[in-house]
Amino acid sequence: MDKLTPQQRHKNMASIKSKDTKPELIVRKYLWSHGFRYRLNSPRLPGHPDIVLRKYRTCIFVNGCFWHGHHGCRYYVIPKSNTDFWVKKINRNIERDKEEQRQLATMGWHCITVWECELKKNKREKTLSSLAYTLNHIFLQDRSLAYSIPEIYGDIAAEPEP
Q1: What do you get for the CA distance between the two ends of the chain, in Å?
Q2: Distance (Å, rounded) from C-alpha 157 to C-alpha 52?
Q3: Is the Cα dihedral 121, 14, 75, 135 positive or negative?
Q4: In degrees, to the nearest 5, what angle opens at C-alpha 141 toward C-alphas 28 and 160?
Q5: Which domains does the chain have, with CATH numbers?
Q6: Using an 8 Å Cβ cutoff, are 112 and 58 in contact?
Q7: Over its length of 162 residues, how does the chain's per-residue pLDDT go in tens digits?
Q8: What residues have CB less than 8 Å from 46, skipping those under 6 apart?
Q9: Quick one: which H or E segment has residue 61?
Q10: Separation of alpha carbons 111 and 38, rounded Å
Q11: Spatial contact of 63 and 115, defined as CB atoms under 8 Å apart
Q12: For the residues of 92-151, what is the DSSP string, one character each?
């Protein structure tokens, strides 16, 4: 049973941010300090990725374990009240995430998902260094990525490559 009144619960859930969350800021600070330059929440790409690295043709999604249904994670627990609503909502989020990543992949973008639980203090350094390694590996694997992206002033063009 919920310890809060419906009004308190509504206020609590409505105050949760979707941008500039603590996990997202951790990833952004690490990437910037290690020389990776990026754009935020690109409105021209499907799913408005949290972080977009044009040079690496990579989108990074920093997902909250509860909101995006991180199965097997201790932070993904379905609430005991209004269970049907939450199950449907989280399943819609999971399906939307898969579809957006499919669209990005067909457009030639790499997608990386970083989970909130992987940024807890005991796992953070390993996760972030793995992220940097992956980005460098993507870039080294295909050096033409740096030159195949058209130079556009402003934001990223979201059209698929010919």
Answers
A1: 55
A2: 12
A3: negative
A4: 75
A5: 15-147 (3.40.960.10)
A6: yes
A7: 567 787 876 777 676 766 778 999 999 999 999 999 999 988 889 989 999 999 889 999 999 999 899 999 998 998 888 889 999 999 999 999 999 999 999 999 999 999 999 999 999 999 999 999 998 887 776 555 444 444 443 444 444 555
A8: 99, 100, 103, 104, 107, 158
A9: strand 58-63
A10: 14
A11: yes
A12: HHHHHHHHHHHHHHHTT-EEEEEEGGGGSTTTHHHHHHHHHHHHHHHHHHTTTHHHHS--
Q: Strand 51-53 to strand 39-40: parallel, antiparallel, or no bridges (unpaired)?
A: antiparallel
H or E stretch at 58: strand 58-63
Tell me the sheet residues that pair with 52: 39, 59
Q: Which amino acid is at 122?
A: N
For the stretch 87-125, pLDDT in tens is 999 999 999 999 999 999 999 999 999 999 999 999 999
- The single-letter code of the amino acid at 30 is Y
Centre a 10 Å sphere on the Cβ of residue 19 and count the other Cβ atoms it contains: 9
CB 69 within 8 A of CB 90: yes
- What is each CA distance from 120 to 86, 116, 126, 149, in whole angstroms? 25, 7, 10, 34
